[in-house]
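Here comes a specimen:
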Amino acid sequence: MQTLTITHGDLLGMTSGSLQVASECAITVCPRLLGVKELPRAAREWMQSALSSPDAFREDHYHTAGVRAYRGGDAMKQVNWSATAKTGELLVNRRETMVGGDVTVLLNAELADASTNRRLAGEQFEEAISVAASVAKQALDSGGRAGLIFNGRVQGDDAVPLRIEPARGRSQFYALLEAMSGFEPVVRLELGYLLGDLLQGRMRGANLLLITAFLTPKQELAVRKLRQAGNRVEVMLLYKDRPASRQAAGGTS
């Protein structure tokens, strides 16, 4: 962006003006974040299952991995009084997790289903990105780790597929948002091959949300195999599972 236009005025509307200045900055448009109640049913149910699992994010390792904000149910013996005194916020020791507590969103860039001659609009792909970002934020806010897999084209990144391994923290959330801002619904690796790669890579114990326009019989078989391998996999179909706000506005396409 070479120039920026700044428009200014007062609260009463008595004066106004604009100023144009030179600039060498870039604007990144991040996905819209949805509240839990706005998420599609499939995403809500998957999150409830993943986040309420007895061992989903259990910190049961004897190694301390830093501190985090106090959450209801934390034992007082976990409180890090030194860190609490320095920050003025009640903080507890965070321990490493020995069990699988990762949340991974797999977003499929394919919008067309050749077998039914059906294609979804680009608007629904934007909704899917919003769902992916919102699910990741909910997981991170709950103290878990969130990751992302995308088989489409990403501006500024040639990785096929794009894969961001699950991690915690604000920096992880910003990394996910930055990546999603460059997503395009242009397929770089067919979903069936991607699911096959996950199986060959021996993915085990993962919480996986697959957001896809459609699912072919071959892809359904790969999903079943991932489940049989010990993964929790939920499929959100874009043609019927849409954000609640969009359903209220006009239903599915």
